[in-house]
């Protein structure tokens, strides 16, 4: 079991109130679809206007009858449910160490429950889910009517057996899923953890853990509650541990967690019970990236207060990667971050299912009309309403119950074929209900990093303002670093180790000296300003941790790997290693660098300011051991750093140049601090960290006091390589008529460059960059400017997008949908999902979202079809998606081949099953009209059951193997995909054609049998039923476009079953008659008349109006 949550999205889940900014008084005339009335209204934004107009409508009797009663009932039910399920208000808490009994409130059990039903609600719940669909409810009513003697038409089993089979299959499937969920929950809740008590360690189940318990979490153990760390034993860091959060936020890199320093100094574990201490923690929050609390120890004078942050926590669903952790439980069960952030995916229904549902309702209407006509022709004599219901039951085969069964089995078959396709290995179908959606997509919304790109960072460029170094000139940087640290220096790290030696400076020319010094400062800053930790693999042996620790001190290059939360940082540190300055060791208080000459430079870490999405930068304050100099290093995005560094005339231009090359840029700067400056800062910083209210704002304000007039050192450029075959895949999708939107959190320039390099935007295509807008007037003018552009790709930032959607949602979506490609940069996960929903609402077209990280989950679940890639950011997107692939290039075959086949096959299968029901209903109508409109069934008992099952089921179901175009042809001519999105394979036109065919064939079969029979009525049944079976088998052959050997087997097997069963059907047939030649020629003649004209029409249509795919295949 893994509880999935979505980071970055959480901060914007809460409603955010916007204020209208200064409206320009003189706006140009805007030829958009916005009314003047709406634009002039300053009291509400654009989104509320349509709602206001709806509310102003008269709610009279007409409104109530036309659907208002549904609205009122729904509102009442929602209100009642809300009252019954009123949630307890979440509050901040005080947790005493090891004393759960001191808790003031009762907190939820630490138990996981993912079951939908319990033993009492299972049967009612499953039945409700089935009968809320029109098709199943209709058959239930028809089957129940057979218990009324006056309405009984035939044997009960002819109605209840098919319905019972469908319900039994559904119940068994649900029961199996429910049992699996129960077993997974039980396994998770029964996991044993070590609990620390006064008497020592005891084993407790996960479900028995309480708030206030002291829990010991070992290496490679997943924890199911939320703790604050008090002890930590780690091979790399004393008082810290590494955790993996891939099941929580999709990131696979290790993260460093730090123990509370006060308790870390205790001599033994048991001493935790001898102190009087508590944790004050904020109320349970959605945000997994922040935590505010205080640790207080009362039994000392003065009391010890220590602030707690995200670095001191271990969230549920995270894994301890190294070390052993002792922590106090703060949140349990439903109040953990992982459960609070659990997103429940909507129940997706395919477009084909909705279309079939509409056709089913049309058939029901036709059935009722036909029954009324039959009663009217009777003259409404006697109990006509009873006869009306009997006719409705008689014609109930117009809507076949086998339709749902056949389609569900077909979907399962398509899923199996997709997973067995050797050309797309590793593909997993997680939602078997919507494979046809793959053939109906119009919009593809894709993530950038890890989806179009590999998320493998390579250092490409270093720019110092006057000189730039690329991959081919890195050896020059290496030589400068070697000169800066000559081998004659002592290995203990002297003062000259931090600056280039006087001798090397004197020997070099003036320009060289200046450049050498700047290179040295830049490389040292990059090597120091990060959150990277070198990890050394343990050697083979029995001592485990000990040998790992020894290897740590060995600093050998062979077994060193780097761990960090960002692949960009790892790329930077690997680059500094390649040019000679290697990070060899790091703990909580210091880090060590190794120079080209082998000497070790030690720097003490005084403060670290981690990267956040709001600040877009990270900083570190270090003190050099040899000189005692204190330096503040900072690196971050150019938009954040531009106002922090000293004035320069090259940063903005070079950032733009690097972004155009597709490089991710970081600006590096430094500031030297005196001892007095640092002490003043530290006092203010510690004071801000202890505050409970507005802690984040106060801490940020103190840090910003340092971020002034910093010395700009360099600009770095890191490349994220494209995935394999991204360009041909995007070109294939574009030729198929699919519009591709790239939604990314990266900066505008980088996103634009990747869009060009990946050929998302073709080289000869114009790009319109939507200028940043912050209010309604600016959005008005910019939309006017965008409207004048034709056939150009759109690039827009998340902030501007939000403003446009706030005021001009409909207009913006209408203009954006006309673009061949759209790039949305600086997008939050919530905005990604919002864009998907906008396209669904405004275009009514099918959307597909593809991504690889936890921040793509909301977009994937919102789309009609979600595709996840198993990437470096973990499996969260893959697990949440409907389809999981291993590489982006596989999406081409998934859509062009499997999407096409699934849609075409289901359309043919659904219509043929309906034809099978309509043809027998037509025969029943003809029979009743000839015999004085009597409501008597033509075929009874086993004949009807056999007709829907063994006599025709296998050939009809074999249509799931049919294909109109070979896979190679579908990939070679992706333009064929455009026809699928028009829905021509299943429409009212094709449905009416099948209705006409059914009426023609049913009439011929019935009239032919009545004309050709001689003496007994039983001969009519034998002739017409046999001709019906042969007609259905021949019609399957007529429908098939590409024969498969299993289709031939199905045809002959069904025919053999019917012939063999004739010996046992003496209750319905005259066995002496069906063995005569008269029976055979009459059956053949009727079958020929019913099928031959259709074969001729099909031949002529193929000859004079062939479909597009047949032209290609010929």
From TrEMBL:
GO cellular component terms listed in the entry, alphabetical order: endosome; plasma membrane; trans-Golgi network
Annotated spans, Disordered: 484-511, 540-563
Low complexity bias spans: 484-497
Pfam families on file: Hydrolase, PhoLip_ATPase_C, PhoLip_ATPase_N
Origin organism lineage: Eukaryota, Metazoa, Chordata, Craniata, Vertebrata
Keyword Transport recorded: yes
Catalytic reactions of this protein: ATP + H2O + phospholipidSide 1 = ADP + phosphate + phospholipidSide 2
UniProt cross-references to Gene3D superfamilies, sorted A to Z: Calcium-transporting ATPase, cytoplasmic domain N (3.40.1110.10), Calcium-transporting ATPase, cytoplasmic transduction domain A (2.70.150.10), HAD superfamily/HAD-like (3.40.50.1000)
Bias-annotated ranges (Acidic residues): 547-556
Gene Ontology biological process: endocytosis; phospholipid translocation; retrograde vesicle-mediated transport, Golgi to endoplasmic reticulum
Cofactor: Mg(2+)
Family of the protein in this entry: Belongs to the cation transport ATPase (P-type) (TC 3.A.3) family. Type IV subfamily.
Binding site for Mg(2+): 447, 449, 852, 856
Transmembrane parts of this sequence: 157-176, 362-382, 913-933, 939-961, 991-1011, 1017-1038, 1045-1066, 1078-1097
Record: residues binding ATP: 447-449, 569, 611, 635, 664, 744-746, 826, 832, 855-856
Protein name as it appears in the record: Phospholipid-transporting ATPase
Residue stretches making up the P-type ATPase N-terminal domain: 103-160
Membrane-related topology note: Multi-pass membrane protein
Active site: 447 (4-aspartylphosphate intermediate)
């Amino acid at each position: 079991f893994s509880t999935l949550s979505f980071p970055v999205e959480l901060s914007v889940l809460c409603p955010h109130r916007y204020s209208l900014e200064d409206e320009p008084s003189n706006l140009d005339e805007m030829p958009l679809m916005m009314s003047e009335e709406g634009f002039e209204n300053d009291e509400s934004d654009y989104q509320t206007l349509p709602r206001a107009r709806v509310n102003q409508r008269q709610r009279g009797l007409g409104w109530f009858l036309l659907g208002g009663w549904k609205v009122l009932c729904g509102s009442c039910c929602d209100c009642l449910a809300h009252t019954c399920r009123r949630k307890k208000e979440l509050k901040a808490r005080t947790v005493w160490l090891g004393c759960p009994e001191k808790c003031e409130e009762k907190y939820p059990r630490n138990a996981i429950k993912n079951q939908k039903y319990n033993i009492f609600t299972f049967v009612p719940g499953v039945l409700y889910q089935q009968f809320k669909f029109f098709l199943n409810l209709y058959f239930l009513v028809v089957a129940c009517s057979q218990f009324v003697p006056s309405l009984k038409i035939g044997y009960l089993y002819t109605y209840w057996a098919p319905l019972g089979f469908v319900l039994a299959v559904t119940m068994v499937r649900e029961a199996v899923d429910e049992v699996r969920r129960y077993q997974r929950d039980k396994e998770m809740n029964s996991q044993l953890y070590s609990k620390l008590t006064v008497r020592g360690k005891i084993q407790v189940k996960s479900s028995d853990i309480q708030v206030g318990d002291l829990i010991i979490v070992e290496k490679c153990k997943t924890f199911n509650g939320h703790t604050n760390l008090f002890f930590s034993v780690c091979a790399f860091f004393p008082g810290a541990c590494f955790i993996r959060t891939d099941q929580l936020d999709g990131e696979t890199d290790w993260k460093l967690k730090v123990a509370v320093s006060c308790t870390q100094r205790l001599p033994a574990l048991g001493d935790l019970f001898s102190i009087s201490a508590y944790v004050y923690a904020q109320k349970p929050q959605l945000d997994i990236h922040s935590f505010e609390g205080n640790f207080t120890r009362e039994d000392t004078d003065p009391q010890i207060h220590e602030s707690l942050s995200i670095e001191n926590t271990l969230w549920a669903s995270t894994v301890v990667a190294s070390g052993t952790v002792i922590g106090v439980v703060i949140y349990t069960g439903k109040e953990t971050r992982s459960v609070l952030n659990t997103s429940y995916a909507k129940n997706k229904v395919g477009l084909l299912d909705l279309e079939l549902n509409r056709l089913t309702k049309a058939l029901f209407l036709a059935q009722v009309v036909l029954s009324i006509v039959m009663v009217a022709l009777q003259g409404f004599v006697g109990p006509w309403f009873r006869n009306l219901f009997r006719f409705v039951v008689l014609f109930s085969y117009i809507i076949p119950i086998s339709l749902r069964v056949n389609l569900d089995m077909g979907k399962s078959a398509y899923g199996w074929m997709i997973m067995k396709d050797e050309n797309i290995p590793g593909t997993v179908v997680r939602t078997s209900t919507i494979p046809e959606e793959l053939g109906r997509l119009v919009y593809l919304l894709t993530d950038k990093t890890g989806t179009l790109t590999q998320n493998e960072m390579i250092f490409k460029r270093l720019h110092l303002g006057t000189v730039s170094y690329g991959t081919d000139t890195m050896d020059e940087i290496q030589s400068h670093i070697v000169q800066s640290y000559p081998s004659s220096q002592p290995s203990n790290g002297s003062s000259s180790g931090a600056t280039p030696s006087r001798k090397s400076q004197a020997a070099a020319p003036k320009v060289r000296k200046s450049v050498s010094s700047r290179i040295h400062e830049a490389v040292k800053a990059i090597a120091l300003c990060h959150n990277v930790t070198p990890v050394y693999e343990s050697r083979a042996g029995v001592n485990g941790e000990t040998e790992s620790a020894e290897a740590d001190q060995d600093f050998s290059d062979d077994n060193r790997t780097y761990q960090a939360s960002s692949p960009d940082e790892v790329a930077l540190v690997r680059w500094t290693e390649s040019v000679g300055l290697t990070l060899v060791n790091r703990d909580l208080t210091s880090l060590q660098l190794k120079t080209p000459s082998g000497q070790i430079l030690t720097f003490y870490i005084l403060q670290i300011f981690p990267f956040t999405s709001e600040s877009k930068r990270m900083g570190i304050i270090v003190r050099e051991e040899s000189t005692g100099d204190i330096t503040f290093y900072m690196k971050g995005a150019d938009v954040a750093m531009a106002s922090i560094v000293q004035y320069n005339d090259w940063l903005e231009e070079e950032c733009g140049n690097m972004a155009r090359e597709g490089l991710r840029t970081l600006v590096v700067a430094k500031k030297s601090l005196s001892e007095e400056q640092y002490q003043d800062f530290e006092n203010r910083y510690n004071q801000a960290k202890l505050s409970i209210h507005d802690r984040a704002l106060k801490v940020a304000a103190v840090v910003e006091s340092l971020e002034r007039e910093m010395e700009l050192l360099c600009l770095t450029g890191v490349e994220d390589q494209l995935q394999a075959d991204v360009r041909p895949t995007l070109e294939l999708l574009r030729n198929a008529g699919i519009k591709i939107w790239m939604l990314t959190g990266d900066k505008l320039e980088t996103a634009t460059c990747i869009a060009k390099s990946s050929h998302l935007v073709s080289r000869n295509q114009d790009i319109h960059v939507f200028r940043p807008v912050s209010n309604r007037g600016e959005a008005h003018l910019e939309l006017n400017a965008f409207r004048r552009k034709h056939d150009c790709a759109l690039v827009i930032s998340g902030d501007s997008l939000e403003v446009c959607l706030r005021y001009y949602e409909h207009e913006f979506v209408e203009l954006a949908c006309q673009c061949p490609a759209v790039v949305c940069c600086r997008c939050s996960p919530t905005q990604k999902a919002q864009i998907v929903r906008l396209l669904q609402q405004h275009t009514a077209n099918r959307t597909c979202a593809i991504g690889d990280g936890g921040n793509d989950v909301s977009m994937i679940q919102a789309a009609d079809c979600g595709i996840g890639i198993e990437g470096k950011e973990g499996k969260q997107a893959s697990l949440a998606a409907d389809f999981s692939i291993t590489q982006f290039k596989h999406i081409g075959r998934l859509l062009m081949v499997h999407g096409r086949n699934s849609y075409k096959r289901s359309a043919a299968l659904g219509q043929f099953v309906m034809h099978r029901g309509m043809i027998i209903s037509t025969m029943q109508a003809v029979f009743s009209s000839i015999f004085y409109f009597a409501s008597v069934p033509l075929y009874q008992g086993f004949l009807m059951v056999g007709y829907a099952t063994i006599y025709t089921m296998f050939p009809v179901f074999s249509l799931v193997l049919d294909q109109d175009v070979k896979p190679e042809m579908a990939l070679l001519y992706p333009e064929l995909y455009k026809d699928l999105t028009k829905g021509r394979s299943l429409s009212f036109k094709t449905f009416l054609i099948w209705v006409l065919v059914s009426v023609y064939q049913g009439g011929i079969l019935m009239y032919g049998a009545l004309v050709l029979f001689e003496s007994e009525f039983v001969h009519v049944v034998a002739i017409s039923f046999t001709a019906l079976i042969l007609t259905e088998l021949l019609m399957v052959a007529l429908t098939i476009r590409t024969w498969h050997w299993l289709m031939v087997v199905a045809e002959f097997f069904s025919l053999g079953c019917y012939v063999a069963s004739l010996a046992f059907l003496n209750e319905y047939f005259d066995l002496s008659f069906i063995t005569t030649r008269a029976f055979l020629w009459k059956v053949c003649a009727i079958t020929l008349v019913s099928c031959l004209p259709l074969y001729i029409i099909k031949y002529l249509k193929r000859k004079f109006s062939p479909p597009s795919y047949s032209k290609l295949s010929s």
